[in-house]
Amino acid sequence: MKRSAIRYVFLTALAVVITAGLAASGGTQSSGNTAAGPVTVRKSFSLLNPSFQQMPVPPDVDVNNNEWADIFKKELPDIDINWIIVPPDQLTQRINILVGSGDIPDCLPMNMAQMISWSDMGIIRNINGLYESSYQNIYNFLTEDDLKTTRYNGNQYGIAIPGNRLENPNVLCIRTDWLDKLGLSMPKTIDELYNVLYAFTYKDPDGNGKDDTYGIAGCTNSNISFNHMMQIFGSFGVIYGGGGYNFSKVGNQIIPDIIRPEMRDALAFFARLYKDGLMDKDTFNMTAPQLEDKGTRGIVGLWGFAANGIAARAYPNMQKANPNARVALFIQPPAPDGKLYYPVGRNGGGMRGVSAKCKNVDAVMEFFNWMIGQDMSTLPYYTLNADMVYQKPDHSDAEALDGKYLVEKTQDKLTAQEWADRWRMCYRTHMGTMQVAPDNILLDINATRVKLGIANQFHLDAQLFAQKNGVTNAAAIQGPAYAEYMNDIISYWEETLASIVTGAKPITAWDDFVKFFYANGGQKVIDEATALNS
Fold first, then answer.
1. Is the pLDDT of residue 275 over 60?
2. Residues 6 or more apart whose Cβ sits within 8 Å of residue 130
């Protein structure tokens, strides 16, 4: 059976029961006989996992002994998992400390640059042949692109976590009630967009008689400034954001979009918005939650966020403050070639490395293998999306252990206790059905959820937009040149972007950045990306 067919059979049940699930962990055992009977040898491994957003595990909770950790013990009694849970903003520092000390967890998250570096240093081991020989559930869900991202020097390093960037795309939303009040239409060109943002800023769109609104705002996310404005870069024919730095094929080369001339034009447009006061001055300092707060309170008319965050949380909260508030998915003006460019990443869930010191590699592999090989209708564990809660049949306390009492709620309807209990998401590893679902299955599932009234049309519209206009990174495979040079290049880029947009430097600073790129290993990065991805 082909992989796509296997995915389809596995996931079709989800569209029927609408109870997204995720089973967790796996293990092996060996037995011997003694006078007292069979003896089971338990296998253990340590697993470093980022917590949900910045939500900490409650101080009175032992991460390895609680109702959520107990799920793994119950379902896989022959494997001991030592959970090491770290907030995302501390993850890089914690990993660096562990790697530097040599006290490396058996399984840990990593990016491509780390995979290259750690494999060269002998910190992680290759897992050549393990997918194909013993762990078919994982292998059946991986595309060739997924596998490519975890290959280096002819070896398979790390466990690729299948990712579907359509699951919850970052998109822009626009206040359509402001458009109506000001007698404006949805902008179709860059000039029309400028005029709309000008009116949102200076024409009192909320009607309160105060100068307290901005046309547009962004924030920093995953160390990528302007991440939530990435759609507008697409109006200039370049890709920016979407979880990384995009490369495009230009002629016979694969080059980063940040050095393409179209990026210069995009920066000039953003600099004009900032100079004319149409962009919130806090854009380069705001976190994603702060941006959401400003959008919810009606301070900004065009802003970006994860689609489900807008649909399930921000918009309901916006309407509580202003029942007349309305938003719609913003479709950016097309690029000069008529296309709508939107970044969709391959392997959106990232990758996991296995330590060279790990004594029970088979237990680690079985953990991930088992999680995606279960029947959707009987799962004791689930994807841990923020708008899902377990409940007993009498709708009392949240419970996960029996697995058949899933009730889906929009985030605005969660109780205080359910919100407080979201630390359970520390145990998700992105090996979930909605992460690995092929595009057509994912969209079918959410279309059904919309019809049943348990999902929002905005979210589905965003997914359809991303599917139709999505552009994947042409440099899916990266090598040692990327790892060696791109960190310094990206740091200089971030400084250049902020300086140009805020007016601290003229647009010619982009030309200086391009010179810096080539003077600091940039051509080696291009040559390597072209060779590895052509």
1. yes
2. 156, 361, 365
Cβ-count burial of 521 within 10 angstroms (0-12 exposed, 13-18 middle, 19+ buried)?
A: middle
Distance CA 349, CA 297 (A): 32
Residue 121's alpha-carbon distances to 205, 364, 385, 440, in angstroms, are 58, 21, 36, 41
Q: What are the DSSP E strand ranges found in 59-188?
A: 79-86, 107-110, 151-152, 155-156, 159-160, 170-175
Average pLDDT over residues 9-18: 34
Tell me how many helices (H) and strands (E) the chain has: 22, 21
Question: Are the beta carbons of 340 and 233 closer than 8 angstroms?
Answer: no
Secondary structure class of 351 (helix, strand, coil): strand
What is the C-alpha separation between 422 and 500, in angstroms, rounded? 40
Q: Which residue has the tokens 């900032």?
A: 274
Question: Helix H segments across 242-300?
Answer: 261-275, 288-296
Task: List, for residues 86-132, the tens digit of each pLDDT value.
Answer: 887 788 889 989 998 989 999 999 887 788 889 999 999 999 988 88
Q: Of 230, 359, 221, whose CA–CA distance to 288 is shortest?
A: 221
Beta pairing class for 214-216 and 300-306: parallel
Q: How confident is the model at residue 151 (pLDDT cuts 50, 70, 90)?
A: confident
Task: Please give the span between the terminal C-alpha atoms of the chain, in angstroms, as a whole number.
Answer: 29
Q: What are phi and psi of 151, to 5 degrees?
A: -105, 145
pTM above 0.90, yes or no: no
H-helix or E-strand containing 532? Answer: helix 522-533
Task: Give how far Cα 316 sits from Cα of 313, 356, 417, Å.
Answer: 6, 48, 19
Tokens read off for 160:
């690729």
Evaluate whether 26 touches 76 at the Cβ level (below 8 Å). Answer: yes
Q: 217 is written with which tokens?
A: 């705002």
